[in-house]
Amino acid sequence: MSLFSFLAALLTLAGLFSYLNARFLRQPAGIMFLLLGVVAAMGVLAVGQVVPGFAAQVKATLVQFDFTEFLMGSVLSFLLFAGSLHVRAEALKAVWRSIAAYSTLGVLLATGLVGLGTYCLLHLAGAPLALLPCLLFGALIAPTDPIAVLGILKTTDLDPKIETNLAGESLFNDGFGVVVFVTLLEIATPGSAPTAGSVGLLLLQEAGGGLLAGAALGYLGYRLIKTIDHFQTEVILTLALVMGGYALCHALHVSGPLAMVVAGLIIGNVSRSEAVSDTTRDYLEKFWEALDEVLNAVLFVLMGLELVVVGFSPFYLGLGLAAAVLALLVRYVALAVPTRLLGLSKQLPARTLAILSWGGLRGGISLALALGLPPALHPEVFVPMTFAVVLFSAVVQGLTLKQLLSWLNRG
């Protein structure tokens, strides 16, 4: 199947699922796209039982398309920029300490605890693995997915401070989580002999370099946009900033996700204050909102279809559900520890940790990182486990977040 035909099939499914959700289901779009994608994948596997070779052909097409490269190499840049474009700097300033703590210390703590818990879980299940691959699994599960989280926020009525914490943390901990994963992957690569100094330098290069690159890209985009008032050109400039900037970050070996978040924050906030006219701002925001919706639809459908690649392994999918419960408990601990250590509870509304824990969804980034694991690091174990965690996160957490908020408000 050609690339155009494959993308056409994905977009057709996304359009059909979007209609079904808007017309009948009326649930958070990303979650419904994922679930309907899973249903479609199960249909492919069922037809494959009747028509030999059909499921194998679909699987070969999905493997050839490369979900990891599709998300991490291109689509993620657009989604992070679009998500950060709507986050207000004033709101971030009010809770910046908690966002910084949760997206760094919280991610490191969650990585270690999930990794250790998974190590013990696999030993108890009679499928023991070394600690380092388990820590890699912890790193890809630890950060919440901004794509999933921001989609949920559109359908809920949260306290502004909690909403800003959830959105801001998910945007930044995604970038930092990828940095931690890349660092652990470097350590786990056969033949490498990293030292504490080289690991620290890699973290500094990826995270610090990504933040600096994002600030530079955002400032450059702001200066260019400020000198004209032509919305078509300004849309093209933002597209060039995202695509060219993400490619540049990749070439410089700095964090592209962090760079896109910072650039989006700068462009989004200065465009409201001084850089563009009201007409241009309206077109710019609507363009990125529409692009965000289309890419999200395609991405979540593709995530569901990845069940064809993952395969149905009851043993590892069951372990994944246990890991999902573990990750949820660890999420609360990883938020509570920095909150207590840094005295953050004074700036947070009541029940913030419960809402942040339950609303911290896992999504495409976790699955993409798992699918990109080299054979020596046991993707046959961690891919189905990650898929189960993502599915649990979407169905159990995502579909019940509104009910949790209602219950907490009554309490």
TrEMBL record:
Signal peptide: none annotated. It comes from the Bacteria. It is a multi-pass membrane protein. Keywords: Antiport, Cell membrane, Ion transport, Membrane, Sodium, Sodium transport, Transmembrane, Transmembrane helix, Transport. It holds the Pfam family Na_H_Exchanger. Its main location: membrane. Residues 14-407 form the Cation/H+ exchanger transmembrane domain. InterPro entries: Cation/H_exchanger_CPA1, Cation/H_exchanger_TM, Na+/solute_symporter_sf. The chain crosses the membrane at residues 32-55, 67-87, 99-122, 129-151, 171-189, 201-225, 315-334, 355-375, 381-401. It is found in: Cell membrane. Belongs to the monovalent cation:proton antiporter 1 (CPA1) transporter (TC 2.A.36) family. PANTHER family: NA(+)_H(+) ANTIPORTER NHAS2 (PTHR10110:SF195), SODIUM/HYDROGEN EXCHANGER (PTHR10110). This is Sodium:proton antiporter. The lineage of its organism: Bacteria, Pseudomonadati, Bacteroidota, Cytophagia, Cytophagales.
